[in-house]
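Model it.
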Amino acid sequence: MPRIAVLIVAAGKGERAGTELPKQYERLAGKPMLRRTVEAFAGYPVQVVIGAGQQELAAAALAGLDVPDPVTGGATRQESVRLGLHALGRDAPDFVLIHDAARPLVSRKVIADVVAALEAGADGALPMVAASDTLRRAGDNGQWTLVSRENLYRAQTPQGFGYAKITRAHHDHAGSEVTDDVALAELAGLKVQMVQGEEKNIKVTRKEDFAMAETLIGSDVRTASGYDVHKFKDGDHIWLCGLKIPHTHGLEGHSDADVGLHAITDALLGCIGEGDIGQHFPPTDERWRGAASWKFLEHAANLVAVKGGVISHVDVTIICERPKVGPHRDAMKAKIAEILKIEESRVSVKATTTEGLGFTGRREGIAAQAIATVRL
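Modeled.
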């Protein structure tokens, strides 16, 4: 079996995207775009090439993935590719797939077709899509000239090559100004085979492309529930949804016994399959005695983020006869939103009684149930 490696070029500044960060590090449907691109090649050895000064951004985007440290690229894409190829030379593959970090939606079929062309003997392989729009060229006089679409194609990546051949082409034509690696391969006399690309394999270039890419990605929406109960004890206040509220009793618990935050924490952990609050903060662990429950909720939110998730909404219902939740509702929403770092409009706090029935009706304690929605 031939050895295949992937070189992902992520050294650009992405200025046309108009984003705060270089576009490859901006979140796309909850994940940094670079991470999505690397994950598209799961199962292949991947080498990423980044821009100077982007080490921390890259480390955050790639955290937890089995990839080597990124290589710092050069002033041009061509130079960045050459440096990436050099890094792969430590354990040189038979074939290399060179791919743009800004194409996170490449499919396994396109990747497989490029590999198949190389295995069949092609020097290189290029996925392309036929031009379908009407094309016009602007003239110096302000007039537009119609351009025939016949035999016009749009080039995509990954562009695949025999590793030794494309490395030699980069060495021999280092001073050439080309827009992609196929052009360089052709200068070196290599024969490149076209394979069918896909419209979905878009290059995210402008800010509006992010919205289009997110639409194409769709989303994995997960919903889970959480429930918690604490009984009353002697005291003069309780903690509820992050607020200290004066009351005739306190709530008994290993931590501060905030039933609202505990229920939301369990709901978020459920969305990502990470167990429950007791697994992360065991009541037998003295470190958490009297601990503020916002720490538990923040931990759950961080785990969601690490998995590339976005918290879409949380809803918590407090079940008790006293204290009254209504006067504190807005402050509770604000506090939960602050802890989760989401908009207040994505937080709902409700309250109900049990009409005097059960342990909450007898005012023996407080219960809370929560539902969270996470988009992965």
